[in-house]
Amino acid sequence: MEILVASAIGVLTATGLYLVMRLRTFPVIVGTSLLTYAVNFFLFASGRLVVGAPPILSEDATRYTDPIPQALVLTAIVISFGMTAVVVIIALGAYLSAGEDNVNEPDPEGLLEGMDEEGERA
Fold first, then answer.
1. Are the CB atoms for 63 and 51 separated by under 8 Å?
2. In a domain, 120, yes or no
3. pLDDT tens digit string along 83-109?
4. Cβ–Cβ contacts within 10 Å for residue 85, how many?
5. Residue range(s) defining the domain that contains residue 35
């Protein structure tokens, strides 16, 4: 079971990192979402993987699941949803202002000609 969970977290992380390093904005957004899923899965798995156990201590304290990682995952889901919405709006604004979604495109219109390293007019 642990090998399967570790493999799933590794695949999610590797795929997320690969997509984050792409040159278009949509794969970057999907990659950050996959990275947040990997972190959430890791946090959830850190609370002990026990099937059918209650998340609180009962009379039988030998079988329970730690509720703190579950609360952390719920909080992380809400935060990642909000951050994904912010990144989508920023990417949409960049796309509408530049007319394309390439992240690392050279200056095709010559807007940065005559600028020095600090962005000041030379």
1. no
2. no
3. 999 989 988 888 888 777 776 655 555
4. 10
5. 2-49+64-98
